[in-house]
Amino acid sequence: MIPLVQTFRTVVLANGAFPEHPVPLALLHDADRVICCDGATEHLLKFGRIPDFIVGDLDSISDDLKARFATILVPVSEQETNDLTKAVHFCLAHGWSEITILGATGKREDHTLGNLSLLADYAQKSSVQLLTDYGVFAPQLQRKATYESHVGQQISLFSLNPSTFFTTTNLAYPLENRALTSWWQGTLNEAEADFFTVEINDAHAEALHITPVLIFREF
Fold this sequence. Notes:
Number of helices: 5
Shape: elongated
Distance between the termini: 17 Å
Strand order of the largest sheet: 4-3-2-1-5-6-7-14-9-12
Helix content: 10-25%
Number of strands: 14
Order of helices and strands: EHEHEHEHEHEEEEEEEEE
Strand content: 25-35%
C-alpha cells in the first residue's frame, strides 16, 4: 500500500510558492539533502537551511549568493529543460533516485502545469512525489496500485494518454475501464475507505512502457 507521503530523503526545491503546510515543511526540515533550483535559494535561507547544491542556469540568483555558495553551484546552461528538470537529472546522476519535489506549484500557472506533467518523465527513472500545500501528486507506473486513504479524502486522477483506461475501487465515483480524455474528467473524486485502488490499462503499450498517470490525494 502506498502511503500518503513517502519518506524520500532527497528534496528538490523549485522556485514556485514556498511551502507553508506543516507536512512539506517537515520533509524539508528533515531531508538528508536539499537541491535548490537557483531562484529558490533565498527562500530556503529564510527558512533557516543552507542548500547542499544549487542547480540551474543561474539566471535567478543574485551575484552575492553566487559568490557565497560558489563551491556548491552547479551551472547548467542548456535551455531545452527547465531548472526543475536540471535539478532532478543532477540527483539521478548522483544516485539519489527517491525524490520529493517542493515549491513546484503556485505563482505562474504555466509553470505549474509543466512541472506536473514532468512527473511522468521523472517516473521512468526515479521514485518521485510532488507536494503542495494541499496534498500530494504522485505518478503511477504500475498496472495496479493500492493507496492509503481515509473516508472523505479528495482524490483526483489525471491521464496523460487518452488511450489509458482506468478501473478504480473505493471511490465515490467509480471508474470501470474508463478512458479520461481530458484532464478535468478524473478530478473531484472522494475516497470511501481507508484505501483505494487504481488499475490502468493501455492496450497499445508494452508492460514496461506504460504512460504514467498522476494521482492527487489531499492531506
